[in-house]
Amino acid sequence: MELAQVRLLVTDFAACYHFYGEVLGLKPQSGAADGPYEKFSPAVGSAGIALQDRSVMAEVLDELGDTANGHRSLVVLRVDALDAYCEEITMRGATILHGPVSMTDRMRVAHLKDPEGNLVELQEWLLLRG
Asked: Which residues belong to any copy of the VOC domain (predicted)?
C-alpha cells in the first residue's frame, strides 16, 4: 500500500489553487487552475496535496453537497527554515495564525488556513539539524 495523496474537497477552486501554488509554493501537476482537480507537490518528497471541486464529488456522493462545517482536515508541511518560510509566504499573501513557536524540543510549528478554512501546519524538525 502507498499513500498517493491527501485530497481536499473545496468550493472555491481558484482561490485554493492560488493558495497552494502561489502562496505556499507547491508545484501543480498539470496547471488546471480552473479545476475540477489538481495535485500539488513540494520540491522534495513523494507526498502530495490534491484539490477536488466539492460539487464534482457531490455528483458521486450526495452528502458532499452539504455545506462543510468545522475543521475537517489538517495539512502538514515540513520546511527547513520555518521563520524564513513564514516571512516569504506572508509577503505572498498568507496570514499566519499562530507561531512560529516551539511545539516540543524537537519541532517548531506555525499555523495558517487556506481560503476554504482548512488548517495548514508548517513544521521545522529540529531533530534533523544534527
From this structure: 2-125
Which has more confidence, 13 or 43?
13
In this predicted structure, what is the pLDDT of residue 51? 94
| Whether this model's pTM surpasses 0.90 | no
SS3 state at 64: helix
Could you tell me if residue 18 is inside a domain? yes
Q: Cα–Cα distance between 3 and 76 in angstroms, integer?
A: 14
Give the 3-state DSSP-derived string for 7-63, with helices as H, strands as E and coil as C: EEEECCHHHHHHHHHHHCCCEECCCCCCCCEEEEECCCCCCCEEEEEHHHHHCCCHH
Residue 58 included in any domain: yes
The parent domain of residue 73 ranges over 5-125
Q: Is residue 130 part of a domain?
A: no
CB neighbourhood size of 121 (10 A): 17
- Kindly report the CATH number assigned to the domain that includes residue 37: 3.10.180.10
Position 115 pLDDT exceeds 90: yes
- Give how many domains the chain has, as a whole number: 1
